[in-house]
Amino acid sequence: FSEVLIGPRLGEGGFCTVYAGKYSGWEVAVKQMKVTVDEQLRDPEMTTTFIREIGFLTKLVHPNVVRLYGVSQGEKPARWHIVTELCENGTLARLLDRAATLAWSTLHMVAMDVVRAMAYLHTRAPVVFHCDIKPSNILLDRSLRARLSDFGLSREDEAADDKAQPSQSLVGTVRYIAPEVMSNGVGSYSRKADVFSFGVMLW
User: Fold this and answer.
1) For residues 83 and 110, what is the distance between their CA atoms, to the nearest angstrom?
2) Which residues contact 196 (CB under 8 A, 6 or more apart)?
3) H helices within 16-134, ranges in order?
4) Phi, psi of 106, deg, nearest 5
5) I need a labelling partner for 38 at 20 to 30 A (CA). Which of 3, 99, 118, 181 fits?
6) Residue 99: which pLDDT band, with cuts at 50, 70 and 90?
7) Which residues, 6 or more positions from 61, have their beta carbon under 8 angstroms from its beta carbon?
8) Cis omega before residue 63 (within 30°)?
9) Ramachandran sector of residue 75 (left: φ over 0; alpha: ψ -120 to 50; beta: rest)
10) Phi-psi bin for 193: left (phi > 0), alpha (psi -120 to 50), beta?
């Protein structure tokens, strides 16, 4: 972790704070968990989400998926840090909040980048369901090219038959969740659920 230089704070979520930084000459983003490693290990749900995100980022390599550089525990008190590529324009949600209007060409470019990321996930073996597609999980680089991020809720499907895969719990953000996922309070995920979330985001 001593090789990573932490810079200004970029943003904050429920479980982490994100900083700009430098690593081996690269401009990076550093996601620092708010709780210590020991505290995190005592929370099974947080631990599972963290391990799942690292697992997916390690094996997903695509121009429209955020790139992982590494993971570190950091200094005492030890906290996990996830080091990824830096997307200078932040989230799509932030851009939409700041900009009164955006050119249709820009909106189309961002939308197509997200489509390419979904197509990559949905044609892998096993298929990957993101399960939380929304503007705050779309990062934008300095050219406003999009990267899909935040895979802590994602799932895999070995069958790849597009049949809904049941989950023990409902995951995602309510505003963007497909109706079949909401039914009976238990998640049923498929590629169609991601497409529904994308459609809501476009709307």
Assistant:
1) 23
2) 176, 177, 178, 179
3) 37-41, 44-59, 92-98, 104-122
4) -70, -45
5) 3
6) confident
7) 67
8) no
9) beta
10) alpha
Contact in structure between 177 and 194 (CB atoms under 8 Å): no
| Three-state secondary structure call for residue 148 | strand
Q: Strands 127-129 and 138-140, how do they pair? A: unpaired
Active-site residues, by number, are 132
Joined together, the tokens standing for residue 29 give: 């983003």
Task: Tell me the C-alpha distance between 137 and 93, whole Å.
Answer: 8
41-82 pLDDT, tens digit each:
777 777 788 888 999 999 999 999 999 999 987 667 678 889
Q: Is the pTM of this model over 0.90?
A: no
Contact 26, 69 (CB under 8 A): yes
Q: Which token pair is 84?
A: 């990824």
Amino acid at 65: V
Distances (CA, A) of 18 to 12, 86, 196: 6, 10, 28
* Token pair 């994100």 in the structure block, residue: 18
What count of residues does the chain have? 203
Q: CA dist 102 to 73, 97, 106, 175, Å?
A: 40, 11, 7, 23
Helical axes 191-202 vs 104-122, angle rounded to 10°: 170
For 46, residues 6+ apart whose C-beta sits below 8 A from its C-beta are 15, 35, 40
